[in-house]
Amino acid sequence: MEEELKSFVKVWGSAIISVSYCYYIPSKIKRGVHRLLSVLPVCVLFLVLPLFFVFTIFSSTTAFCLSILANFKLILFAFDKGPLLPLPTNLFRFICFTCLPIKLQTKPNSQNHLPKWVFPSKVAVFVVLLNIRNYKSLLPPILLLVLYPLHLYLVLDVLLTIVNALLTIILGCDLEPHFNEPYLATSLQDFWGHRWNLMVSAIYRPGVYSPVRSVCQHQMRSDWARFMGCMTTFFVSGLIHELVYFYINREKPTLEVTWFFVLHGVCTAMEVALKRKMRWSFSPMLSRLITVGFFVVTGYLLCFRQIERSNMLERRANEAALFIDFVKRKVFNYTVSYNQFLYKKNIVVNYTA
């Protein structure tokens, strides 16, 4: 654990220094290819940094924050696009908005008006799921089919909401939420575009979808250009998730996750095309059941089985236990050392008296 914490300090120290360079040097270079070339060495470094970790919690978090989000933000920044513009007012803000999964809120969001009991309820369900994990072998397969995506959603939503709340206080500004109740999605387009992992969607749109669609519009009809933009975005997302899996497991990619995103890309594109041609629609409740059910089933078959095979959840639990034990030992050693110091000090005082 001590070696992992040393690696954590070195990795994130390197990241902060690199982002500081981007704030002072590339930001002064004219947008375009020259600014892109000035940030590319940082992007390459960010692709390497997760490999310095053994613990999955550190490697996956670093991969998500630096190798994916920060790299996309810096590439968009090179062309005066993305969440880093307008340029933050100081270095500390620039580091936070680059390295952390946050985005400045530009317009009020309806999620801010959700009942106050919603988030505590999610926390309570999350705690229950953590305890249920110990009885996984006793649960029927159909229940596991639902529990895996629910566990993933609650882990991300609860932790990222807490991070957002803390950074809102520290930075003194409103931040975009990461999720918008995806279980209420009435279509795949609604799910991926407006409810699931909004931080990533906001980066893919200007970073992948819009450029591909713009290029294709000169070669084909607008409908096909939209289709190509949609498929390219989902394909890139699949490859990026494969990269994250590689950082965690250090095994040859199986491309299962890529096929998951390609499948959802095809279905989303077909759904959009049908909506344009057909006037009727399902009831909201039925639409939600179909959308969430499709995500759960395909996610289990193509994503969560890979997590199951790699024992990722068990490894995370063991890492958490090791970290808690490490903290306990450090606190105990500090307490013992402090008590010994006070004891020796009292002896000296009594002797001199």
UniProtKB/TrEMBL annotation:
Regions that span the bilayer: 36-69, 227-248, 286-307
Membrane topology, from the record: Multi-pass membrane protein
Family: Belongs to the wax synthase family.
Entries under InterPro entries matching the protein: Wax_synthase (IPR044851), Wax_synthase_dom (IPR032805), Wax_synthase_Magnoliopsida (IPR017088)
Protein name: long-chain-alcohol O-fatty-acyltransferase
Single GO BP term: lipid metabolic process
Keyword ATP-binding: no
Top-rank EC class of the record's enzyme: transferase
Known role: Catalyzes the final step in the synthesis of long-chain linear esters (waxes).
Protein localization: Membrane
Ranges where the Wax synthase domain occurs: 176-262
Entry's EC annotation: 2.3.1.75
Predominant cellular place of this UniProt entry's protein: membrane
